[in-house]
C-alpha cells in the first residue's frame, strides 16, 4: 500500500475528528425536532377547550327549562250569581245528601281541610253553636271534607257537633266548588282542601263565596250574610 492511500484511510474511521463533528451535529438537531413535537397536542387541546363553552350554554338552557314549574291545578271559576253545582254524597250516619234536598232554602257549605284538627274543630263548633240562629234564618248548614265517614262520625261524637258532615273522598264536590287546589307548607307545595265557605241562596244560586277563610268570627259573619238575603 502506498503512503498516500494509508493517509486517506487513517482519516475515515469513526473515531476521526470528521466523524465526531457529524455525530455532534446529528445530536444537536435531534433535540430541536423533539422540542417541536409537543406543540402538536397543544393545538389539539385548544380545540377541545372550545367544547366546554358550548356545554355550559346548553346546561343553562336545560336549567331554565327545569325551573319553569308546571302550571298549578286550576281552581273552579265559580263566581257569585252562578248556579250552585249539584252534588250527591254520603254524610255521617249513613244517609245521602244532595243539593236538591235543600231546594227553596238557603244553604251554607263550609269546606274544611281535616276532621279533628284545631282550626277545623273550632270552625265546626262555631257553626254548631249558631245552628239555631241559622235555622231561624231559614238556612241549613253542611260541613264538607275528604275524610271518610268513620272519621267524620268520630269527629262529630268527640265534639258533640250538630252539623251534618259530608264525606267527599273523590274530591268531586270539592273541585266543583273550588275548594280543592294547590297549597304550601314548610316550603313544599301539594294539593289539598282550601278552607272555603259558600252561601247558596233560596234560588239555588251562589250568593256569597269566602276563600282562604280565617276561622275566628267566621261563622258569625256567615250568619249575618244569610240573614241579609
UniProtKB/TrEMBL annotation:
Domain of life: Bacteria
Main EC class the enzyme belongs to: oxidoreductase
Residue segments, region Disordered: 1-90
Similarity field: Belongs to the peroxiredoxin family. BCP/PrxQ subfamily.
InterPro entries with a match to the protein in the record: AhpC/TSA, Peroxiredoxin_BCP/PrxQ, Thioredoxin-like_sf, Thioredoxin_domain
Entry keywords, A to Z: Antioxidant, Disulfide bond, Oxidoreductase, Peroxidase, Redox-active center
Protein name according to UniProt: thioredoxin-dependent peroxiredoxin
Catalytic activity of the protein: a hydroperoxide + [thioredoxin]-dithiol = an alcohol + [thioredoxin]-disulfide + H2O
Amino acid at each position: 500500500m502506498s503512503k498516500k492511500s494509508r493517509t486517506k484511510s487513517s482519516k475515515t474511521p469513526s473515531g476521526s475528528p470528521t466523524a465526531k463533528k457529524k455525530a455532534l451535529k446529528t445530536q444537536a438537531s435531534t433535540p430541536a425536532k423533539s422540542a417541536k413535537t409537543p406543540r402538536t397536542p397543544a393545538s389539539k387541546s385548544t380545540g377541545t377547550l372550545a367544547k366546554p363553552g358550548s356545554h355550559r350554554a346548553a346546561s343553562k338552557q336545560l336549567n331554565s327549562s327545569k325551573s319553569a314549574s308546571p302550571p298549578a291545578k286550576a281552581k273552579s271559576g265559580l263566581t257569585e250569581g252562578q248556579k250552585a253545582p249539584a252534588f250527591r254524597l254520603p254524610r255521617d250516619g249513613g244517609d245521602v245528601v244532595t243539593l236538591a234536598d235543600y231546594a227553596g232554602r238557603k244553604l251554607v257549605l263550609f269546606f274544611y281541610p281535616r276532621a279533628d284538627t284545631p282550626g277545623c274543630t273550632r270552625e265546626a263548633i262555631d257553626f254548631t253553636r249558631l245552628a239555631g240562629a241559622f235555622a231561624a234564618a231559614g238556612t241549613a248548614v253542611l260541613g264538607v271534607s275528604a275524610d271518610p265517614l268513620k272519621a267524620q262520625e268520630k269527629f262529630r261524637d268527640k265534639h258533640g257537633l250538630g252539623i251534618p258532615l259530608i264525606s267527599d273522598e273523590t274530591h268531586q264536590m270539592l273541585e266543583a266548588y273550588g275548594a280543592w287546589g294547590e297549597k304550601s307548607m314548610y316550603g313544599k307545595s301539594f294539593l289539598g282542601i282550601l278552607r272555603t265557605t259558600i252561601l247558596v241562596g233560596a234560588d239555588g244560586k251562589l250568593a256569597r263565596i269566602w276563600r282562604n277563610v280565617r276561622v275566628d268570627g267566621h261563622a258569625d259573619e256567615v250568619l249575618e250574610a244569610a240573614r241579609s238575603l
